[in-house]
Amino acid sequence: MADGIEEAANSVSNLSVTNPPAEEAPSKNALKKELKKKKKEEENRLKDEEKKKKAAAMPQSQKPSSADDEDMDPTQYYENRLKVLASVKAAGGNPYPHKFQASMTITEYIEKYRVLNEGDHLKDVEVNIAGRIMNKRTSSSKLFFYDLYGGGLKVQVMADARESDMDEVEFAKYHSGVKRGDIVGICGYPGKSKRGELSIFPKRFTVLSPCLHMMPRQKAGPGIENASVKKNEGKMASDVWVPGMTRNPETYILKDQETRYRQRYLDLMLNHEVRQIFKTRAKIINYIRDFLNKLDFLEVETPMMNMIAGGAAAKPFVTHHNELNMKLFMRIAPELYLKELVVGGLDRVYEIGKQFRNEGIDLTHNPEFTTCEFYMAFADYNDLMALTEEMLSGMVRSLTGGYKIKYHANGVDKDPIEIDFTPPFRRIDMIEGLETMANLSIPKDLSSEAANKYLLDACVKFDVKCPPPQTTTRLLDKLVGHFLEETCVNPTFIINHPEIMSPLAKWHRSKPGLTERFELFVNKHEVCNAYTELNDPVVQRQRFAEQLKDRQSGDDEAMALDETFCTALEYGLPPTGGWGLGVDRLAMLFTDSQNIKEVLLFPAMKPQDEPLTKAESMENKKIMSGIILVSLLKDCLYIHFREASKDRENTLLICTIVEIWILEKTRLASAQIFWPRLISY
Amino acid sequence: MDALRVWRASSHFIGFASRAACAAATSRASVSVRIRCCSSSSAASAAAAAELPSTTVAPANPGRRGRNSSSTSDRESIRAIRLKKANSFPSQNSSFFSYEESLLPLEIDDELVIGSSGCARQVAFLSLLFFARVEELRSKGHEPYAYKWTRSHTACQLQDIYSHLANGEECKEDLVSIAGRIIARRAFGKLAFLTLRDDSGTIQLYCEKEILEDQFEQLKTFVDIGDIVGARGSMKKMEKGELSVCVKNFEILTKSLLPLPDKYHGLTDVDKRYRQRYVDMIANHEVADVFRIRAKIVSEIRKTMESLGFIEVETPVLQGAAGGAEARPFVTYHNSLGRNLYLRIATELHLKRMLVGGLEKVFEIGRIFRNEGISTRHNPEFTTIEMYEAYSDYQSMMNMAEEIVTQCALVVHGNLDIDYQGVQISLQRPWRRETMHNLVKEATGIDFDKFKNNLEAAKGVARGILESRSENNDSHLVETCPSVGHVLNEIFETIVEPTLVQPTFVLDYPIEISPLAKPHRRQKGLTERFELYICGREIANAFSELTDPVDQRSRFEEQIKQHNDKRATLVSNSKYVEGENTFDDYSYEVSLDEDFLTSLEYGMPPASGMGLGIDRLVMLLTNSASIRDVIAFPVLKIQH
Q1: Which residues of A128-139 are buried (b: 16+ CB within 10 A; e: fewer)?
Q2: Cβ contact, residue pair A285, B312, below 8 Å
C-alpha cells in the first residue's frame, strides 16, 4: 500500500516536472515574448500548486482535482447531470451532436505520431480524434489535462485556453462542465511532451455524448489506477496482453463480477484487457472459418428451431409458434441437418452457431453457447484426428506464436500451468485405458445387466458418485471422468467409445461393441467430439430405439428419434466424418478464463431482485405455491401408481394428465409461466 | 403422353406388393420382385396389371390401395427391392438393368410422416429383411456402408485437368480415385456406363468386363442409381468425346435404400422440396448452387466488414426482454433460472451497448426470431447483419449499403445489372435517394407536411387515397393509426413500396415510427433514418442512432403506450367483432429495457447503424422467388 502511494506521488510529481517543458515547446516556434513571459509565470505557479498538492496529498488518499463532485452521492450526481442536460436543451443547445467527423482513430493516431521526438509540436497539422475521457486533471481554469481513450489505447489531451478558439471565461466554464466518462471530439494538433508522452493540443473541444453516471473508480486509490493507466500509455503492444498469457481479473479497475457481466460496457471501458478477450474470440472463430474454407468446406445455416430436438442428448428449450400453433424446440445440435445436407450432395459443410440447452448455469455452462460442427464426406475419424491436431496447433501458433499457453487451472492465486499444443496429441483408448488405470476387466457386452452391475460395483469401490438413473452409459461416463479425463491436461484424444455411449457414431471396424469416435480433452475439459458417422439406417433406428429405452428409464437426456433424418439416411449418406468443437471452451483456454462468463459478452445471469409491485408478488407467490403443491401431488401419485402398476410410461402419463387437470381446475395453467413446465413433462 | 406412360409402365417390370407380400418374398430368397411405385392413378392401375418377368409376385389388390396406406407399403416395397437386389444372383437377365434409365419417373408419395406405430412396424419389417441381407453381403465380403474412401480428385478437377485429351485417347499412367453418387447407368453385356456426381460436378465411369473381371458382375448386380460409389482407374476420352474414368476397381461406399426422384419429372411438389431438402438437392443440382452462392455472399459481407476494421461479436439470443424492433417474440422458459426468456427480435440493443463499451465498429451476423406468420418473404427465423459504427451518421451508412450490395453482386454475377424474376435491376451506383414525404407526394400528389399534427385531416385524405388506389379495401388500416406519421407510413407501404423496383434509399422517416433513430438535424418531426428498397422489398434499415437517454426513454414509453392502446382497443373490439386473430397480434407484452437505457446514460458516441436482411439479399442475387428457396430448412406447417 505504502508503495502504491509513493508511486502515485512520484507519478504526480513527474507530471508537474514534465509538463512545463512541454509548455515551453511553442516558444521555440518564436511566439510573442509576452506570451512566453506569461507562460513562465504560469509554469511556476503550476509547479507550486503541484508541489503543494503533493504535500497535501501524501497523508490522505489522493484525489484528482476534478474529483470535487465525485464525493457526491451517485444518485445526486446523476440528477445534477440530468439537470445540466435539461438546461442545455432548454437553451436550445443539442448535448448530443449528430456527427463528429474523426479523421483517424486513436490507434491510428498513436501509430502515426509515436515517432515524434520528445518536445515536438506539429502546429500546422490538424487532426480530428474522438474517444472517451477516463481521467481529468485540472491545473488551472486555463489548463486542463485529460486521458482520452479509444480502441483500448490512451492519448493525453492538454487543453490550453490559449490554443482554444473560445475566450478564457467560456473556456473555463466549458471545461468545468466536462466530466470523467464523457465522450468528446477533439480538433487539434499532435505533439509530445518532454517526458515523451504523446498528446493532442485541442483547438476545438466538443462533448459528443455526456456520461450521466459517476464512472466507477478503483477503490484502492488512484495510485494503482495510475499505474494501470500507465501500462496502456501511448505505447503499442509492448506489454499489452496477448492470447496464451495469464490474466488476473483481481487486478482490474472494475472487479465486481456482477457488474462486469451485467454491464459489460463498463467492463470494456475500464478493464482494457477485456477487449482483447473478445478480439481473441473473434480471431479463434476466424481461424476456424479460414481453415475450413481453405479445405473447400461450405458454410451453411440450419434451423435453430426444430420440431424435434435431435443430434445430442440434452434438455431443450421449448417455445411456441402462435400462428402455426406449433410447438418448437430450440436446437441442441445442428448435427442431423448437416448430415442431411451431406446426403444432398454437399460433401463438406460446416456451421458455426449457437446451441441452446435448458440446463443449469455454472463455470462452464451457459444456456446458449457457440459450437462449430463440420461434416466431411469420404473421411473417417482418423482423418479428423489429424485435422484436429493441425487446426488446434495451428491456431495456438497463429494466436501466440508458439505451441504453449499458460492457464490458471488451479485458480488465480496459484501458479499457472502450461498447456502444450505441440502435435501429435496423446491418444487413450477409452475401455482399455479405463481397465488399466482402474485395474478393471469390464464385461465385453456392455448392454448386459452384468456389465451394469460390474460398473456399479466399480463406482462404489472407487467412491465415484453417480446420481440416478444409474444406466451403464452414465456409470461409464463417471468412471471415465474420474480416471481418464483427470489425466488429460495437455490435449489428449480419448478414443473408441462403446456403442451405448454414442448413438450416432459408427461401429468400430475391428473392435466389436465399440465405435469410431474420439473426444479431445484439454485441461480435463472436453473441447472436441467427433466420429465416423453412422450411415446405416437400420442400425441408426435400432440405436434410437435403445435411446428410447434409456429415456423411459428416466434419463431424459437420451436422444429422440428423428424420422426425417432416418429417411435421409435411407437415401444414402456417404462415409462421413463429423466433428464438433466448443468455441467458448476454446476461448476460455486461450484467454486464461476459468469462468465461461468471461468469454461471453452478455452471459445469462440470474435475474436481479427487481422490486415487484405488491400485486405481482402476491400473484407470484400464488403461482409458486401452486407449482410446489402440484408437483408434490404428482410425485405422490407417481410413486403410488408405480408401486401398483410397474408400468413407468403409463404412470408418468397418468400423473401428467392429473397434473394438467389440477392446474386447469386451479386456473394456474393460465399463468404463462406455467405452460413450458408442462411441456417439459 | 398419358398413354405413353401407361405403355411404358406396363412394358416394364412393374409390380406392386403389399407389405405382406414383401414379407413373404423374403422367405423365398429366389423370388425376384421389381416394384416401382407411382402416385399417379393411371400408373397405379397399370402397375396392378403389370407383368412379372421371371417368377411370381404376390398380386396386388387394387382395392386395398388407399392413398394413405399405399404410400407406406410402396416405400417399403422399394426398400425391399433394393435390399433384395444385393442378394440376387449375378446370373440374372442382364438386360434387366438396362431399363433403369427409362423407367417411369418416380413420384414419391406425399405422405412422408409415418405414425409412430407405423414406424415401429417399419423398423421391425426392415430389420427382418436387412439382417438376412447384411449377413449375405458380408459373407461375400461386401460392406454396404464403407468407412472411408481416399479420393485424389473431384469430378470437376478431372474435367479440367484432362480436357486436353483427344477423342479416344487414354492417359494410362495416371491413376485417379473418385467418389460420388451414381445418378445414371447404362449396362450392356460386357460394358457399363455410370454417371457419377460429387459436390463439384459429374463424370462418366466406363466399366469393362475385361478389366473389372469378377467385379463387373458385382457392379451390374449391386450398383443402383442413388448408391454412393468410389472408383479408381485411368482417364480416357471416349470416341464420342465424353471424358471418363476407366474403372480398374470400385467399391460401394453406401447403399441407397430409396429410389431417387427423376431429374426431369420428379420433385415438382413444392412442399416436399422444402421438407426433404436433401432429395431436392440430389434431384436438382442447381438447388445446392443457391446455398453455395449464399455462403459466398455471407463470406463477402464478412470480408468487406473486416477490411473496414469492424469486429464481429456474438450477442445473446435468449433475452430477458426482447427489444430493438416491434415484433411478437417467441417465449421460452429456463428451468433452472425459473423465468421466461424471449428469443431476440433484433441484435440492436446489445450491439449498441458495445459502442458504449468502446468497441467503435462492431457487427453481428446472426439469427433473428419473430413469432409471425410465414410467407414467401417471411420465415420465423432469418439471418441479418447488423453493424454499428461510432462517429458516423446515416449518410455514411448509405454508402456502406451500396458498397456491400454491389460487392456481393459482383462476386455472384460479375456485373451490376441483374435479373430478378424477369425484372432488370441496375445496381449501378449511386442509387436514388429520396425522402419519404417526396415519394408519397410524387405518387399521390399529397404533401403530408401540410397536415402538421392534424391527425383527422390526414386520415380523411389517406382514406380517400386508399379507397381509390388499392383493389382490396385497405382504408381500415389508417383507422387505428395514432399519429400523422403512422398514416403517412401506411400510405407509403401500400402505394409507394411496390413501385420501388430499382434500388432506392427512402429517407427521413417520421419520428413516431422510428423509436431508435436520432431526430433530424434540420427537419422537425423527422428522423435521420433510411430504408433501402430493391424490387419493392425492404433490404436494409438504418439510422443515425439516438444517443440521448432522456429522449430514448420517452420514446420507449410512447411505444409501449401505443402498443397497449392498440391492444386495449382490440380487446374491447373483439368482444363484439370476431377479430381473434388481430387481437392475437398484439397480445404480447412489451417491456422497457432498463439496462439499455442505463448504458446510454453512460454515454454512447454519436453513431449510425444498419440492419440488412441477408436472406432477402440472397433471394435477390440468386433470383429466388421465395425465402424458402434460400433457407436450407424453412419452417413449414405441420403435415396432416
Answers
A1: bbbbbbbbbbbb
A2: yes
Q: How many Cβ atoms from other residues are within 10 Å of residue A346's Cβ? A: 23
Are A276 and A590 spatial neighbours (Cβ–Cβ below 8 Å)?
no
The percentage of residues in chain B with a pLDDT greater than 70, rounded to a whole number, is 74
Q: State the pTM of this model.
A: 0.79
The DSSP H or E segment spanning A615 is helix A614-645
* pLDDT the model gives residue B573: 66
Task: Tell me the pLDDT band of A609, cut-offs 50, 70 and 90.
Answer: low
DSSP string, B477-505: GGTT--SHHHHHHHHIIIIIGGG--S-EE
d(CA B74, CA B122): 12
Of A275, A602, A680, the CB nearest to B350: A602
Provide the pLDDT for residue A250: 84
B149/A575 CB distance under 8 A? yes
A378 touches chain B (CB under 8 A): yes
Question: What's the grid cell of residue B288?
Answer: 445446392
- Enumerate residues 6+ apart whose C-beta is below 8 A from B184: B101, B194, B195, B225
CB contact under 8 A, A361 and B336: yes
Dist. CA A150–CA A107, nearest whole Å: 7
- Most A CBs within 10 A among B75, B123, B125, B148, hence the mutation to make, goes to B148
| DSSP states of B308-354 | TT-EE----SEESS--SS-SPPPEEEETTTTEEEEE-S-SHHHHHHH
Cell numbers standing for residue A550: 434409456
Each residue's pLDDT tens digit, B132-181? 555 666 677 777 888 889 999 999 999 999 988 888 888 888 899 999 99
- Does the N-terminal peptide bond of residue A423 adopt cis geometry, omega within 30 degrees of 0? no
Q: What cell numbers appear for A32 in the block? A: 510573442
The reported pLDDT for the residue numbered A444 is 85
C-alpha cell belonging to residue B525: 418531426
Residues 10-29 of A with CB under 8 A from B: none
Distance from CA of A247 to the nearest CA of B (A): 20
Contact present, B261 and B287 (Cβ < 8 Å): no
Angle at A494 between CA A492 and CA A496, to 5 degrees: 150
Q: Are B195 and B182 in contact (CB under 8 A)?
A: yes
Instruction: Note the pLDDT of residue A195.
Output: 84
**Contact present, B532 and B401 (Cβ < 8 Å):** yes
What cell numbers appear for B530 in the block? 433510411
Alpha carbons within 13 angstroms on the beta-carbon side of residue A328 total: 28
Instruction: Using alpha carbons, select from B180, B185, B184 the residue that is nearest to residue B200.
Output: B180
Rounded distance between C-alpha atoms, residue A1 and residue A673, angstroms: 52
Q: Are B208 and B273 in contact (CB under 8 A)?
A: no
Does residue B483 have a pLDDT over 70? yes
Residue B596's closest CA among B638, B635, B546, B525? B546
- Whether A282 sits inside 8 A of B595 (CB atoms) is no
Interval A195-206 mean pLDDT: 91
How many alpha carbons lie under 13 Å from residue A601 in its C-beta half-sphere? 30
Conformational region of residue B267, where left means phi above 0, alpha means psi within -120 to 50, and beta covers everything else: left
- Residue in chain A closest to B317 (alpha carbons) equals A368
Q: Are B8 and B106 in contact (CB under 8 A)?
A: no
Would you call A330 and B332 a contact, using CB atoms and an 8 Å cutoff? yes
Predicted ipTM?
0.79
Is pLDDT at A248 greater than 90 in this prediction? no
Q: What share of chain A is helix, strand, coil (3-state, %, to 5)?
A: 45, 20, 35
Range list of H helices, A462-573: 472-483, 537-552, 563-570
Q: In A, which residues are within 8 Å of B529 by CB distance?
A: none
Is residue A334 within 8 A of residue A302, CB to CB? The reply is yes
